[in-house]
């Protein structure tokens, strides 16, 4: 999903676990109406991407659509990367690889890693703060990949309703139950486990803003602010009344926050 506007910024939007470019359908026209170019991406084996998750060998392969999009951006174009939930790890990798291309990075209720620790630290902390019962009717599975058996997860409709879309319109929850696909957290991936991957010279040099969804029933406000504290210098914004899917529950408020961030980048 791509389109161009005038001379504004270019927002690149990255979804979270099991989701796809479709989850930005309300936000994209708002940003375009404000004069910006917007690209909503499917990571590998997500949304309408043709691969199956069992075909995705690594976190780098999963992130490839984003890495390619950032690399292909013309010189001088101001990119604003927006990563939601697990998508925070995708944009972190792009920031490390291509920091000069990124004017600002927005972590929307997202996994935001820090320099000096591996990217999986945020997921480890989430696991520490929750119980297995959190995932309710979600389906766990084992995928046979080229790297051997790997765990995957499909969000169940009850989990979606209670923990992710609890303040979002019923239509958007229904859409999600039809479109979510199996997702992987890649906690066993060598790149995600690499404590030297993210550097001060690259990742930490990019302007970072964390957008806190104040009513998230899955990623608590405390958990979100813990990630902000791990990366000194990160700015924080809040969206009151937003559930985990702020792009559905508080679309206009999210758009306004993104436009403000882009204006200051």
TrEMBL record:
Q: Name one Pfam family in it.
A: Abhydrolase_6
For this entry, list what GO says about its biological process: jasmonic acid metabolic process; salicylic acid metabolic process
Q: Which residues form the AB hydrolase-1 domain?
A: 12-255
Q: Which GO terms describe its molecular function?
A: methyl indole-3-acetate esterase activity; methyl jasmonate esterase activity; methyl salicylate esterase activity
Know the name of this protein? AB hydrolase-1 domain-containing protein
From which organism does this entry originate?
Triticum aestivum (Wheat)
């Amino acid at each position: 999903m791509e389109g161009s506007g005038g001379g504004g910024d270019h927002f690149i939007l990255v979804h979270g676990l099991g989701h796809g470019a479709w989850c930005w359908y309300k936000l994209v026209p708002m940003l375009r109406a404000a004069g910006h170019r917007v690209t909503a991406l499917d990571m590998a084996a997500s949304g309408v991407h043709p691969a199956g998750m069992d075909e995705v060998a690594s976190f780098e392969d999963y992130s490839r659509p984003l890495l390619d999009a950032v690399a292909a951006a013309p010189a001088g174009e101001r990119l604003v990367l927006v990563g939601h939930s697990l998508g925070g790890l995708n944009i972190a990798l792009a920031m490390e690889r291509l920091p000069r291309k990124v004017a600002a990075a927005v972590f929307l209720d997202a996994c935001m890693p820090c320099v000096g620790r591996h990217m999986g630290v945020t997921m480890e902390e989430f696991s520490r703060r929750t119980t297995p019962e959190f995932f309710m009717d979600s389906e766990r599975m084992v995928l046979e990949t080229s790297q051997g058996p790997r765990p995957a997860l499909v969000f169940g409709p009850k989990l979606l309703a209670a923990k992710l879309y609890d303040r979002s319109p019923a239509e958007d929850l229904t859409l999600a139950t039809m479109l979510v696909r199996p997702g992987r957290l890649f906690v066993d991936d060598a790149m995600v486990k690499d404590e030297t991957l993210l550097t001060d010279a690259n990742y930490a040099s990019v302007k970072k803003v964390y957008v806190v969804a104040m009513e998230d029933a899955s990623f608590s406000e405390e958990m979100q602010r813990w990630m902000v504290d791990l990366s000194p210098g990160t700015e924080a914004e809040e969206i009151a009344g937003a559930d985990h899917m702020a792009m559905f529950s508080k679309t206009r408020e999210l758009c306004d926050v993104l436009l403000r961030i882009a204006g200051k980048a």
